[in-house]
Amino acid sequence: MKTYLILLSLLLCITSSAQQLKPGFDKEEYRDLMHISARTTANPNYFKDFPESTSFKMLYQSEAIGLDNLWDLWTNDKQVSVISIRGTTLKPESWLANFYAAMVPAKGSLKLNDDEIFNYQLAKESQSSCAHWLVGEHCFLIKGNCAKN
Description:
By secondary structure, the chain is α+β, with helices and mostly antiparallel strands. It has one domain. Helix content is about 35%, strand content about 20%. The protein is built from 5 helices and 7 strands, in the order αααβββαββββα. The strands form 3 sheets. Strands 1-2-3 form a 3-stranded antiparallel beta sheet, with helices on one face. It is globular.
């Protein structure tokens, strides 16, 4: 019985220290995420007026790919990570993603060019439809970054 109590105590300590995010709205967390989002623009003229995040540090920023999309990976000292994705920019090709962000089937494929087809599944139910920026945020970001790792 004593062994079980010790194991239960250890498990509770490990579990409680692993829980970094809390349910509900946290204005400091929101502020940090807005500062991160400003930096994800990769445009110093834009983010110069916003303070840097006080909790998170950028570990990686991808190159712009596809329809001018990119993403950042941020982390803090509590082992919480943030992936921030830059969506629409001023470039015309970036706006194509907005026009293509229509209701698409939950499962299907998109022809990216003559040689590449991107197969996707956004939901378990095959009869579902999803409003999504599928081309920019998924096809090119997954292809351009995950394939390298």
